[in-house]
């Protein structure tokens, strides 16, 4: 059976509890995101997850994200070019039923190809909407397909003026701050 999913989600502008703003350190996950899925994720620290979980259900969310690398290696051209950039993101909050995790995690996939990891960096996220609940899958392929669809849904949903404007929110650091 093929189920179709909407390619755009949420009302014309974010409504309560959104926007949800969180920041935290990028911590090590199980490392499966890059290796098994080809979809790297930045795992948020426990403290950041605590702020989030009071307000929202587990599931997949979309919004904007920024990485602020304190140990910025200024000789690294990629770091320099990406400083202060705000990227679209999809975030999975929950237990990863496919992998049967025993600990809840918040994993952010930033929709951009980075040349290196950023463990220890500060991650700032503005969550603007909900995409779907977490699911179990009969194959890794099915999980990867659904995540790729989540990415399209996030990009379509952010491409509306009232969502796009959060890219310039004061919560994100800028070269003016
Ligand atoms: C957008 C997105 C959607 C996801 N949806 C699911 C899901 O429905 N079910 C699930 O078990 N895991 C889901 N995941 C989590 C992946 O299984 C997880 O990122 C992977 O296990 C890598 O985790 P690790 O970096 O801690 O190893 C999703 C991840 C992302 C980024």
UniProtKB/TrEMBL annotation:
Pathway(s) served: Cofactor biosynthesis; FMN biosynthesis; FMN from riboflavin (ATP route): step 1/1
UniProt keyword list: ATP-binding, Flavoprotein, FMN, Kinase, Metal-binding, Nucleotide-binding, Transferase, Zinc
Any one GO BP annotation for this protein: riboflavin biosynthetic process
One GO cellular component, as annotated: mitochondrion
Signal sequence region: none
Obligatory cofactor(s): Zn(2+)
Lineage top rank: taxon: Eukaryota
Protein name as it appears in the record: Riboflavin kinase
